[in-house]
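Our consortium's second objective concerns turning raw sequence data into structural hypotheses that experimental partners can test. To show how far this objective has progressed, the report includes one record in full. It was chosen at random from the queue rather than selected for favorable results. The single chain below, 337 residues long, was entered without modification.
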Amino acid sequence: KLSYQIFKNKNAALVSLIWSLFYLPTIRYSFFIGRDAFIFFLFFITLYFGFNYLAKGKKEFFIYFLLSFVFLTHTDPRYLLFIPVIIIPLYDFFGLKNGLLKYFKFIILFSLFLFPWTVRNYFYFDGLVIVSPKYLDFRKKNTFTSQEDFKDSYTEKDFMLSSVGLGDQSFTIKNRIDVIYDDERELILMGENPQNRSLEELEAVRSGKSPADTFISKRFWMFKQFWRVTNFNGDFFPYPSGIFTIWSLKHNIVNIIFYGILLPFFIFSVIFNFNKKSLDIKYFLYIILYQCVIHTFIWSRVRYRHPIDPLIIIFGVNGMFLLYQYLNDKKIFKNIK
């Protein structure tokens, strides 16, 4: 439905729906399936309600958008970072004065809906925790010093719900172990293996691979990780993490078929639609761009892209139909000539 609302193409909308239903990168390779699947759902319906409110101006869509956004931020507090940029589409659709009024209305109502949870957290954690202790525990400068501290901040039920089901992720990441520091790296280059590392990790070190350690190199790695299609040869996360990951052959093939093939058509569609004056298209391009920017400058994993994968599918399938139409028109033009 959303695809049709944006591009008014029933065939493209049907293909987008089928592609989304069988999109294995999300189904099989989300790290925390129990929580991530809920985040993907909440993120997408939040976009849907927000878009319909902007396009139709109906109050019920505003309420639905507000509620779904509250649930989304409770599930993953990173989406609080979207609050400052909500003003942009409001300005585009309603103008400066009305856009600002609606934005302040949103902030007030959002805070009111958030308040009961904050009160609950205050009594539960004995301190100010606005949403989640993982991100916003103001009682400590460094919220957690160990994995045990992190686990202790949740009830057993909370932690199990967050961690339930690793899908194929636990099998596809062949190595996820401690950082290789300089002294061990030197020993590996000398032919030793003091920590009993895997063959893939040893080969990565000997080929000169190492974690990104400068601001620019980290940003480049984050951007590449966000849009990653394959990981055949393995890669190190930037410092301070520094862990080594490599995907299984099955994971690489699945990602190429369902995401990699679509990516060029997505880029083509974005370029084709970029200069159009359609506010509908701009709204979703803002979302895609901002999701990429915040994870490029903060921290990035492939699964952080998954919430916008439905939009990549919608734009990518639209790119396929645009290219088909272009080639078809070119053929007709030649025949006429």
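The partners drew two points from this record. Strands lie at 235-236, 244-245. The mean pLDDT is 80. Both points have been shared with the crystallography group to help prioritize constructs.
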